[in-house]
Structures are given as C-alpha cells and as structure tokens.
Amino acid sequence: MYKISERIHYIGVNDEQKTLFEGLWPLPHGVSYNSYLIKDEKTALIDTVEHGFEDEFISNITSCINDGNIDYLVVNHMEPDHSSLISMILERYPDLKIIANAKTLPMLKGYHGVSEDRVKIVQEGESVSLGSCSLQFFMAPMVHWPETMVTWLPEENTLFSGDAFGTFGKIAQDPTDKAGTFDEFENEMRRYYSNIVGKYGNPVQSALKKLSSLEIKRICSTHGPIWAENIDKVVSLYDRLSRYETEKGVCIVYGSMYGNTATAAKELAKALENMGVPYALHDLAGNDSSREDGLGISGALMDVFKYDTIAVGSPTYNNGIFPPIETFMKALSARLIKNRRFFAFGSYTWAGASVRLLNGMASEFGFEILSDGGSFPQAFSKEKFNIEEAAVLLAGNK
Ligand code: FEO
C-alpha cells in the first residue's frame, strides 16, 4: 500500500512470477497490476488485480481501511488482469455496488455471474459523489476492449486511465514517478503499446482528444508507475505511437534455418552501424529463451513502432515464408501498421519465393517497397547479395 494523497491509496501488486503476459509477451522485468482505493465519506475501489494475489490485495485494502466497508468498485476494464478478483471482493463486501457501463454488464455476468442489482450502470460524463469528491466516467472503447472507460477525479486532477499510458515492468514501493522514470520505462512502454494496444491507434487518438480538455496532473494507469512528473512525455509518446509516427532507423527482423539468412541480417546490421544509421536486430527463429534479448516478436514489434524502415529476412521454406517470419508479418497486418519503408531478403536453395511473397504482403499493407532484389541462392556471400547497396537503400541515402 502507498498513500498517494489524503484520499488516494495505491493498493496494486507487482507480478514477478509470470513469464508471458496474455500467454504471449515476455516479461523480463515483471509487470504491475494497479488498483486504487479512494477514501472519502464513501470508499471506492478502482479495478482489482490478477488471480494469485488474493492475500496481498486484501492485505493492501485492510491496511487502508481495516475492517471498514467499501461502497463502490469501479470496473474500468474487464480484462482478467484487472477483473479476476471481482467475485472475491463482491463476496467480502456484500453491500458493495459495482460501477460500470452498459457494455461491461454482460462481461460481469459471463466472467463472475454478477447479478444486475449489484451494478450501477453509468453513462458518458456521469458523476458519482463520494462526499468531498466525485468520480466522473468517460468511455474509451477499444483502449483496450470495447467496454473500457476511464475515471476522472476532478478534485485531485487525477485520471484513472485503465491500460492507457500503461507499461510493462514492475514498479517501486513508492509507485509515483520521479524525474528519470520516463527514461527508465520508455522502451517497456513502447513494447507494451505495440504488443497490447497497437491495433487500436484510432481509438487511442479519439480518447486522447476526448481527454484533452481535462487539466490532468496525475495519471493512475493499470500498469506501471503513477505519472505526475512526466505526464507531457508519456502523453506525447502515446500520441506518437497511436499516430504510427516513427523516427529514422531500421528494424531488422529475421529468421534462419542454417545461418545463411542470419549472416545476411548481421552483415546488414554491420553496414548500417558503419554508416551511423540507428537500427535494431531481432532474431525470430527458435524460442524466446534461446535469443539474446529474450523478446522475440514482442521486441520486434516494439522497434517496428519506433523506426520508419523494416528489413525482413526469411529463407524460402516449403515454397513460402519461414513460419516465424510469416507470423511476424501477420502481426504487422493485425496492428494496421502503415507508412513504413520495406526491404525483404533471404536465402533459397532451388527456387526463391520468400522475398517475392514478403514484398507482396508488404505492398498490401501499403508499405514502400525499396527493392525486389534481396533474394540469394544457397550460402550467403556479398557477391550474391550486395550488402552495401542494400544498406544505402535502407538508410534512405539514395
Ligand atoms: Fe491490462 Fe487490457 O488489460
């Protein structure tokens, strides 16, 4: 438990056990599930936490209110990392009412068997008084699910933002941000956004516009630090990510069976390094534990959202694209990635298909195809695949 203000208490938990968020995304630095308790004439809980933290969560609550009652549980978002303990809370506090919007109701019934008489349905902009302060609700559909809303506490200029402005990474005992906290979390915030929310750029833009008239001095997200010192940087990063804005640089993503496409990828990286071009290199073959950064496709998506150019290496496999690379391309499609420069390369043995197929997919996404010449037979050599020429294309110097 950490007291943020006289009214607001942080009662979330750090998860350092889970290895894959949503069963997919590596968590080398853990993740926090944030929940908040607001103490006023009435007491309100904002969201709960994931299964497995029942004792810690109850202990955090009782350290705030002892055996006192909770009047409301605000459910901003129903994904189970925040809603898993709803049944437990309803049982422990039999007079408690859930505050949620109409889209949340079927999910409350389906996940927890909640009866309607325990739910107060709120509309866009509606307020509920807690005594000296009030909670106001704004719908934020698809940030990250259709039922998502955010809660505004005007008397404290505080926004309980759900997944918006969230990040992977465990947080300190004092969860409030300091001057350097944004720099510490920037990569994990970009990775979280690209992995989890990346498909929903337009809804994030709509939410940012809706919230732009609020004088926000504190953001209490469901994951990561509480933002106060770094609000401008955090909102600016989410704004740029949801606009699909990038910086100059190359995200090299490759998979390789016997090392020939891998050698080409590493030679490309070396050439970019020599030219002073920012780049990232992601190997998607094998599994997360066999790779250097342990991030796989999760890290590749992070850098796709960072850089303006994507170079994808795949050998021809069964007359198609190497499967992990095909999965990566589908992940780009699912996230509606646009405005990227694209270059494909890769080895084949008797008939080349991967480069042609990759360029075909990239064309459908609307990417700018830099060249169709990255295919080379059998072993890699600079005679078969002109690395310097490819690096110049990727750098945008031609
Ligand atoms: Fe952190 Fe969409 O749940």
Notes on the structure:
This protein has 398 residues and is an alpha/beta fold. The chain has 2 domains: 2-242, Metallo-beta-lactamase, Chain A (4-Layer Sandwich), CATH 3.60.15; 247-395, Flavodoxin domain (Rossmann fold, 3-Layer(aba) Sandwich). Helix content is 32%, strand content 23%. It has 12 helices and 24 strands. The protein has a 7-stranded mixed sheet with strand order 1-2-7-8-9-10-11, with helices on one face. Strands 17, 18, 19, 22, 23 and 24 form a 6-stranded parallel sheet that branches. It has a 5-stranded mixed sheet with strand order 12-13-14-15-16, covered by helices on one side. The termini are far apart. The model has no long low-confidence stretch (mean pLDDT 96). It binds MU-OXO-diiron. MU-OXO-diiron binds next to helix 2.
| Approximate helicity band | 25-40%
Counting helices, strands and paired strands, the structural category is: alpha/beta
The level 1 CATH classification of the largest domain is: Alpha Beta
Query: How many domains, in number, for the residues?
Result: 2
Cα separation of the termini:
56 Å
Q: What is the average per-residue confidence, as pLDDT, rounded to a whole number?
A: 96
Question: What's the story with the biggest beta sheet?
Answer: 7 strands, mixed
Q: Label the overall shape.
A: elongated
Number of helices: 12
Radius of gyration: 24 Å
Q: For this entry, what is the oligomeric state of its chains?
A: single chain
Uncertain residue ranges: none
